[in-house]
Amino acid sequence: MTVLRDICIYCKKEMGKEDGDGVEGDTGSICEECWEKRFPGVPYPVEEERRSQVSSKSTDTRISLGQLVFTRGVNDKVADNTQFAQFVTESLRRHAKGDWGDLCQEDKQENEFSLKEGFRLLSAYERNGLPKIWIITEADRSATTILFPDEY
Ligand SMILES: [Zn+2]
User: Fold this and answer.
1) Residue 68 sits in which domain range?
2) 3-state DSSP assignment of residue 131
3) Residue 7 C-alpha to ligand 1 middle, in angstroms?
4) Once rounded to an integer, what is the mean pLDDT over residues 20-45?
5) How far, in Å, from the CA of 37 to the mean position of ligand 1?
């Protein structure tokens, strides 16, 4: 069995472990304490898996994200827009589960291939009224960067 550790991107606290199903390393999001410190009054994002796991349990993908990097632009936006912060956190969870977001079918297939072969992964997420973000995990899974497309 391989182990995936769930690490808080801010305080590096381990929030949990799970069976990585062949994948080993660190995956991440924001712990509840850091969330409350940074975004007081904003409800902690609810785990999306409760909804999606029922239907997609058999194809549950897990990706080791490595070190998490926010570009300056994304970091600034997260700090001053709580809705955006929530969107980033949820997108990160989706990416870590192999939900590539708003990509065309061709790009999604490319990711599925990259996942098997150990190449770079790129997801794109959009939400009404918020700027589009990209999430890129390096081929060696040493780092995952969250960026705006124009920062690429
Ligand atoms: Zn934390």
Assistant:
1) 57-151
2) strand
3) 8
4) 80
5) 9
Whole-number Å distance, alpha carbon 46 to ligand 1 midpoint, is 16
pLDDT digits (tens, 9 = 90+) for 140-151: 999 999 999 999
Compute the distance from residue 36 Cα to the ligand 1 centre, in Å: 10
What pTM does this model have?
Answer: 0.76
Is 48 a member of any domain? no
Where does residue 1 rank: exposed (0-12), middle (13-18), buried (19+ CB within 10 A)? exposed
Tens digit of each residue's pLDDT (9 = 90 or more) over 34-61? 888 887 777 777 665 444 444 444 456 7
Question: What residue has token string 């999606």?
Answer: 52
Number of domains in the chain: 1
Specify whether the CB–CB gap between 61 and 115 falls below 8 A: yes
| 18 falls within a domain | no
